[in-house]
Amino acid sequence: MRNLDKYKGVIPAFYACYDEEGNISPQGVRALTKYFVEKGVKGVYVNGSSGECIYLSVEDRKIVLENVMEASKGKLTVINHVACNNTKESMELARHAESLGVDAIAAIPPIYFHLPEHAIAQYWNDISSAAPNTDFVIYNIPQLAGVSLTMDLFAEMRKNPQVIGVKNSSMPVQDIQMFKQAAGPNYIVFNGPDEQFMSGRVIGAEGGIGGTYGVMPELFLKLDELVRMGRMEEAKLLQYDINEIIYKMCSAHGNMYGVIKAILKKNEGLCLGSVRKPLPPLAPKDRKVVDEAAQMIQNAKAKYL
To answer: Which of 7, 18, 139, 257 is catalytic?
Structure first.
């Protein structure tokens, strides 16, 4: 049996941190890492969707991870997403991640071309082979990748002993049950959609990785606690309030991660910059959304903590 305890709990997806010129800010990365250590989350998921990985260069992604590892000092479980849209660069990032001592690497399938399942499996196995001493997490996000993790493909990937589970960001909660039931206790399934954290945990996910955890980690830590304690009515009410905050953040003209970074500046004093184009930055009219969502987070903390 594997020891999967280090993956069980609340793992925020790490945000891309930029300076005023739009370059990766090592100082911002270190400040955000220390913030997560202080909040008491289980770990961080680096260079994923919330980290705007599709718009970062290989070198950018290395800089981010290097600074996360330096600032976390072993106090966080670190999962680093290494997928690029070609195998060579993905393997380069996997080797780099292993050299820094991450707990796991993760990868979406290749996007744009719809590859057959045997080619997707080869892609993931090639990436895994570049980090032979590191756990591997499959990232299933069909609404963005355009490819779903099927049960047959999951079975094929479980032949690789480094595969420890799935970060499941598909919307049907049932997918978590199916992956968990097929794989058993020796694998872990992470809930991906933040709006269904409670549902995903109840049906079998042992942890969660999410893009909005970072702006309100205390609320997700409390939600996870309530689920573990079986206090489901309280958990349901907290999930509803979390979802209202998410809906508010998604209502801006600019990208949601721009809203999140503005809230973190307002509520926590973190300066993480904007978002990288072509993601749309915040418009002046978005200030109202930022202020309202920031206050909703404060109100929810006062209510539940």
So the answer is: 139
Query: What angle do the packed helices 232-249 and 287-304 form, to 10 degrees?
Result: 170
pTM beyond 0.90? yes
Q: In whole angstroms, how far apart are CA 132 and each of 11, 125, 166, 169, 203? A: 23, 10, 18, 26, 31
**And the tokens for 182?**
């097929």
Non-local (6+) Cβ contacts of 259 within 8 A are 249, 252, 282, 286, 289, 290, 293
Catalytic member of 167, 180, 222, 261: 167
Q: Is 7 a catalytic residue?
A: no
163-189 tens-digit pLDDT: 999 999 999 999 999 999 999 999 999
Instruction: Give the chain's length.
Output: 305
Say how far apart CA 55 and CA 57 lie, in whole Å: 7
Spatial separation of the C-alpha atoms in residues 191 and 197, rounded to whole Å = 6
Q: Active-site residue 112, yes or no? A: no
3-class SS at 207? Answer: strand
